[in-house]
What we know:
alpha+beta, 30% strand
Amino acid sequence: MLKIEPVTLEGKYVILRPPSLDDVEGLTKAARDGEIWNNPYAFFPHPDEMCMYIQEMLDLSSDGSILPFITISKKTNTIVGTTRYLNIDRENNRLQIGHTWIAKSWRKTSINTEAKFLMLQHAFEKLGCIAVEIRTDVLNTISRQAIERLGAKQDGILRYHKIMKHGRIRDTVCYSIIEPEWTATVKERLKQKLKEDNSNYNKFQSLF
């Protein structure tokens, strides 16, 4: 059975730590970078809603429904986004990684790749998960390609899964990585991808 507790995950480029209400200002600034609330594929918070958004994370975390993280760049020590474990199935040792968003300036760097690596590693090697699920809007081709590059396999599509902004009905595509895949190929694939992403990250950091 999964035992989910707040934890801080740290890599070379990123720190994932539990949220607090002190993060309102930093997360608001990250959200304004790219206006993530206008994303047509998911529900992300408007800056005016950030305090309520973080409080909701804390409430859901306290009852064990999710395990949220604030995403921080180690290089600049700034908040760049957030992510979480959700749909935690303690009986069957499964969970989902999702509700991930990153400030526009930090996309296509090592930040998201390493965050996913740390979360997958923790899920499989510390929590004892047998499978980790990732979902996205079926129309979000960029997200789907990124998930597939992780090594996740498509399980299927939830048709008419959510009613989105302006009334569009979303189909959700479900992917997963199972423990034998993590051990055999996915872990090393992500390590290699981090090496490749490093050049883009260093180029970005030279601007600071």
